Amino acid sequence: MRNSSEKGARKKRCIELEDEAIEWLKLPPDLQYKFMEKAEEEAKRIKENSSRLISTLDDLKHLVEPYLRTLPQSQGVTLIAAVDGSRSPILSRRLGATYGVFTASGLAIKDKEEVWEDHLAGQFKRSGALSPTRSAISFGLYSLLAERKMALEALEHSDHVILDGSFYGYLYTAHKQKVLGELTDHDFDVLGEINQLTEKIVASGRAIAAIKRTRSRTLEGYAYLKGLATDLNGITDKLALSYAMPARTYLLYEDLTQGRHPIELTLLAQRIEEEGESAKSPDWGDIDKRVYGPFDEMRLGRHALSNLGRLVIKAFEDAPACEVEIPHGKEDEMISILSSPGFFNEDTGLPIVLDMVDQLTSLGVRFIDEYADEIETQALQELYADKAPKAIRWFFKPLNPQKPYRGQSLNITGF
Length: 415
Known about the structure:
The protein folds into two domains: 72-212 and 350-415, Nucleotidyltransferase, domain 5 (2-Layer Sandwich); 216-319, no CATH class. It has 15 helices and ten strands. Strands 1, 2, 3, 4, 5, 6, 7, 8, 9 and 10 form a ten-stranded mixed sheet that branches. Residues 405-411 have low confidence and may be disordered. The protein is an alpha+beta fold. It starts with a helix and ends in a 20-residue tail after the last helix. The chain has helices spanning 4-16, 22-25, 29-64, 132-155, 170-179, 185-203, 218-225, 237-244, 262-275, 284-297, 303-306, 331-338, 352-360, 367-382, 388-395; strands at 69-70, 79-87, 92-93, 97-110, 113-127, 160-164, 207-211, 249-252, 308-314, 322-327.
């Protein structure tokens, strides 16, 4: 039986949620209470573990402090662009076909003033007989291809362009899908085009990749190698460096990775978490294969990754750190650009132009069904044969009419 005072507190909190959490209130009252209990339990666990977390973060702070550099005082104003994409969170599965929609947007600013903007709208369509997984994979590749095309266009309208996500992160997911036999011949063609465009973007020497959803655990891997820590609990670099770095500082990963790519040390950290003590004498050959194998098999060559460097920048005291990827040999030029006035958003810690383009277009979960309905409406207006309208109506009937907004999505980003 629930403690009456706890139950009263939960009821009060549920009432308070009326003004701030509409989705919560759509649940049955008893389910609201049960989720409130879960939230309380998790809050208690966090409180109990807070001292250990702080101690671990302090250890990592001492570890990286000798490698931190101060951003230079740059007064230059550059014409900087950013590219981002959006795709329908789910695919609309009708009896006759599976539909998805995607966009790619580009925006260029100079001294916070917009000087160029463009958008690409795309449709994805596959047979209704194709599996949801394969449809989602193809859909992700199409939307990424649109972003790469927009990035090349953005380079024509700016001095430098920022991409959302690492340059080649998609390769790891694509390689895994290839091993599982989930890629179609057409998927390979699209993937090949993405590779070619990405190579052009990197070769320009004017592109920066901002890794917003980074899962890097390079510091953890480094700490294990140095014998400086044994239980870091899967702390990501973004958390550790947001805590450890002062404002206007940056960390070049190559300063502490001893010639290894940051992804290698991230994989080491993951293996130690999964396998324990036995992984602390790492099989570097196997790790090397996992890091560079996809590049070799996709005929890009390992130089495509090894020619790129990564760094983390903390622009403001109360903003998270930002991980970026840049071409080797361009460090000084890129640091000068990244340190220019007004480059980063004081709230998010990300390049401000990337935040601006992110706000331009966001495709909601219902838009894809509205889009498919519009196709049906226009198709019916064009067809006059007696049997055609009925056939078209069946073609566009939802595959699962009970839950029309349930579909399959796929994130194709990697490290």
